[in-house]
């Protein structure tokens, strides 16, 4: 339960209240490429990532994967639908071996009814996600691929980055295809754009992550 205390929605609860959460929380482990849930399935639970990496995405009419987010330890999901019975809005898939803390929707609803301060915090989280989505849509409309990729790198650096001197290291095993799915282009275009950035000594990448040499460049170019 010490792990769950770091989440915004649980801040302010006392030890007795946390004991109630402990009674309804479960632990599940997922291997890489296992589905946590699929888009359109009946909503079952709220998930809190203890370790690992989860990718959420939608499939468009042409069958293309559109990555919505990459989530790691300390994240909760899904971020919408807490106040209705709508199905899961996207698919969630484990990228690495992942350990989740799971609270069933019915039990989570009871928590929201019992502790109104949690409901307010959930609404704050949903509001931030809506703003993120609006910014992403605006980027798709008004920016070229390089700007969209730079914005994606900036967001990943903010959420998952570790400072390395003047730079920042994005500690995620993200593929070029994942980037293509995030910014709405082809893998070939992402390959070309990343190679151009590497030639300019802006970044380097391997299977475990991406190193941005100068964080100021990243913030100034997006």
From TrEMBL:
It comes from Bacillus sonorensis. Keywords: Activator, DNA-binding, Transcription, Transcription regulation. This is CRP-like cAMP-activated global transcriptional regulator. Residues 9-129 form the Cyclic nucleotide-binding domain. Residues 143-216 form the HTH crp-type domain. It holds the Pfam family HTH_Crp_2. The keyword Ribosomal protein does not apply. InterPro entries: cNMP-bd_dom, cNMP-bd_dom_sf, Env_Response_Regulators, HTH_CRP, RmlC-like_jellyroll, WH-like_DNA-bd_sf, WH_DNA-bd_sf.
């Amino acid at each position: 339960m010490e792990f769950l205390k770091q989440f915004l929605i649980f801040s302010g609860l006392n030890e007795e209240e946390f004991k109630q959460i402990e009674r309804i929380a479960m632990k599940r482990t997922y291997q890489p490429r296992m589905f946590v849930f699929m888009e359109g399935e009946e909503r079952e639970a709220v998930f809190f990532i203890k370790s690992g990496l989860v990718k959420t995405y939608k499939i468009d009419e042409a069958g293309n994967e559109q990555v919505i987010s990459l989530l790691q330890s300390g994240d909760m999901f899904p971020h919408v639908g807490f106040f209705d019975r709508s199905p899961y809005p996207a698919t969630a898939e484990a990228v690495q071996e992942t350990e989740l803390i799971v609270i069933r929707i019915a039990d989570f609803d009871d928590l929201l009814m019992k502790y109104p301060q949690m409901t307010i915090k959930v609404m704050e989280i949903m509001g931030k996600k809506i703003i993120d989505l609006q910014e992403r849509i605006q980027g798709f409309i008004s920016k070229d691929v390089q700007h969209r990729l730079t914005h994606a790198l900036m967001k990943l650096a903010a959420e998952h980055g570790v400072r390395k001197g003047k730079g920042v290291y994005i500690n995620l095993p993200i593929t070029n295809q994942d980037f293509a799915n995030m910014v709405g282009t082809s893998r070939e275009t992402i390959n070309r754009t990343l190679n151009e950035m590497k030639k300019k000594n802006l970044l380097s990448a391997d299977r475990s992550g991406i190193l941005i040499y100068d964080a100021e460049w990243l913030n100034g170019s997006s």
